[in-house]
């Protein structure tokens, strides 16, 4: 029988999905997440750069506009060019119907697991103070392991002295952590909403030689269960839906391109 598991690591899956899907929000609604996002952004004095990863067709991209001084602070990125182009067009139509002079957000297609794409974005000077991750880590964790060459292209300044080159398949969340750390300023908050109570437990495992350790790049500041309020129109008694909020903070360990 064919597998029923979505191919979350395949661009074809996401392009096909977004061709059919108009709008969908993973996990909790904005009201549940808003206080945490407000706090994270406020700690940057309200002028920080916000990276919204895996924005998809979520309404969150639009809702974030109310939390910043300028929409240009918000950079929405997704693996799928289909959804990025549609979101950009919809925002443009929305702004044309409003008063003139209102700025758009920034929109980009970005493969979060591609070192070359991350390095290109870093070369453009983009560094972020808040990273918003609404179940994107969940989706990436469900993808296939990533084949990378070690020592890894993005590495610490004081890395192990020239280990022999080799290829190894790695859990994709490790690669995501390194890539986001490369794009983050020291002190950046990575705000994660997940269905998993152990999303980052793999960081406790031994790190292969030639790969920066995720737990040296990010410090776990908070892990809290948050409950999704029940639907008031639901007449069936259901157990509460619990999600997991993680807040990680970028350390001052420096990353650079390995030459």
Automatic annotation (TrEMBL):
One of its GO terms (biological process) is methylation. The keyword Cytoplasm does not apply. InterPro entries: Lys/N-term_MeTrsfase_sf, Methyltranfer_dom, SAM-dependent_MTases_sf. CDD domains: AdoMet_MTases (cd02440). Keywords: Methyltransferase, Transferase. Coiled coil: none annotated. Pfam families: Methyltransf_31. GO terms for molecular function: methyltransferase activity. It comes from the Eukaryota. Residues 48-140 form the Methyltransferase domain. The keyword Methyltransferase applies. Belongs to the methyltransferase superfamily. This is Methyltransferase domain-containing protein.
């Amino acid at each position: 029988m064919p597998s029923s598991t979505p191919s979350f690591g395949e661009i074809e899956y996401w392009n096909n999905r977004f061709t059919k899907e108009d709008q969908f929000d993973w996990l909790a609604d904005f009201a549940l997440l808003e206080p945490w996002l407000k706090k994270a952004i406020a700690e940057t004095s309200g002028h920080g750069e916000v990276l919204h990863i895996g924005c998809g067709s979520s309404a969150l991209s639009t809702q974030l506009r109310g939390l910043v001084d300028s929409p240009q602070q918000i950079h929405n990125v997704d693996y799928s060019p289909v959804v990025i182009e549609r979101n950009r067009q919809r925002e443009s139509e929305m702004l044309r119907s409003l008063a003139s002079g209102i700025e758009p957000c920034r929109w980009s297609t970005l493969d979060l697991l591609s070192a070359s794409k991350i390095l290109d974005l870093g070369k453009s000077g983009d560094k972020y103070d808040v990273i918003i991750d609404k179940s994107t880590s969940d989706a990436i964790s469900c993808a296939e392991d990533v084949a990378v060459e070690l020592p890894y292209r993005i590495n610490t300044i004081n890395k192990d002295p020239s280990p022999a080159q080799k290829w190894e398949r790695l859990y994709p969340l490790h690669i995501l952590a390194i890539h986001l750390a490369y794009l983050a300023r020291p002190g950046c908050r990575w705000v994660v909403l997940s269905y998993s109570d152990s999303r980052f437990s793999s960081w406790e495992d031994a790190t292969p030689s030639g790969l920066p350790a995720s737990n040296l790049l990010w410090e776990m500041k908070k892990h809290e269960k948050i409950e999704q309020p029940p639907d008031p129109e639901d007449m069936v008694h259901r157990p509460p839906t619990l999600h997991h909020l993680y807040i990680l903070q970028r350390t001052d360990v420096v990353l650079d391109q390995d030459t």
